[in-house]
Amino acid sequence: MTDTTPPSAIITLDKVHKYYGDYHALRGISAEIRQGEFFSLLGPSGCGKTTLLRAIAGFEDISSGEIQLSGRNMEGVPPNRRPTNMVFQSYAIFPHLSVAENVAFGLRKSGKTPGEKRRDVAEALEMVGLADFGKRAAHALSGGQRQRVALARALILKPKVLLLDEPLSALDKKMREQMQVELIKLQREVGITFILVTHDQEEALVMSDRIAVMFEGEIAQLDDPEMLYRRPQSRRVAEFIGMMNFLPAEVVDVAGGKAEVEVAGLGRAALEAGQCPGGAAKGAARIGLRPESLTILFEGQTAESGRSAEGVVEEVVYYGDMTYYDVLIHGAPSKVSVSMRNMPGRRVLERGDPARLAWDPRAMVLFP
Ligand code: ATP
């Protein structure tokens, strides 16, 4: 046991490695997860997020490194002796039991009296919005309600950390969005640390205080949602978290972390140090620009930056509230995707229409 853990860190991961035979599933994961935060492990299938979650829970031994919970090394500590509890993807609800019996199942080894158990069950059901459902048979519940029962069963043990392995993946889109909001509210109410595993970027952005983006057993970036979106440190992270245009560019000058770039089709731009999260060096580079940081100027509009570029619309994808335009910039081998909020009365452009583009140079991100 070490006493270097700052009081705000409930979990410390120190160079955690995991091998399955020859397969290196976790490749030196180091991170601190803070007391009371909503933390997500986000990454594509197979990147190791479930392995990491299971290692924290104690269902999986690690090959080397250290996992500390509340400052205590968890090596050799079985799952039921850790201050964690896990909610699984496949809810694991007993259909033949009532809702209350399912929730009370978590307390079977607690040594509590029947009266205490009843009180705890009622409190847990209240917490997840199922106060009146105690007597209902579990098989007569909707997917969202089952999910809540699973949550109540995990929360009744008052863990310090709740681990959630893709808990919403079996729900339809509408239900999922509703449960996302409810989970955030629940987390704030109970005030304990939630760690969510998800491969859904939007879900992670909406729900998390901080997100660890994982690829191939490593954390590529750990940041709050806004920084991940606005200041991705690599192209891979940028592409995984939403859409981004990558334009060929040349860094012509670097001074004090700032960079002067010549962007194909868009001209010169001066970038602040924060816009160069991966550093800046003279020479060929790419400029990342989100579709919503570009805009099409309609008649009479002028670019805020005073500069614009002419192009032609190649593709139009209509989303109701938004339209995405692929625009080929004249005089450059560059095509950009532009997203525009649809305004009442404004005509949606069509393929082949000329388009004058403006952009926000402050939204540019440099990738060396
Ligand atoms: P998904 O979103 O698909 O669940 P994940 O990011 O959670 O993916 P893991 O389940 O952690 O990924 O798996 C990471 C890698 O380790 C995968 O390549 C997987 O095949 C491998 N793996 C997981 N469990 C085992 C095991 N018990 N034995 C061997 N290999 C395993």
UniProtKB/TrEMBL annotation:
SMART domains: AAA (SM00382). GO terms for cellular component: ATP-binding cassette (ABC) transporter complex. One of its GO terms (molecular function) is ATP hydrolysis activity. The keyword Repressor does not apply. Keywords: ATP-binding, Nucleotide-binding, Transport. Pfam families: ABC_tran, TOBE_2. Transmembrane segments: none annotated. Residues 11-241 form the ABC transporter domain. One of its GO terms (biological process) is putrescine transport. It comes from the Bacteria. This is Putrescine transport ATP-binding protein PotA. It comes from Roseicyclus elongatus DSM 19469.
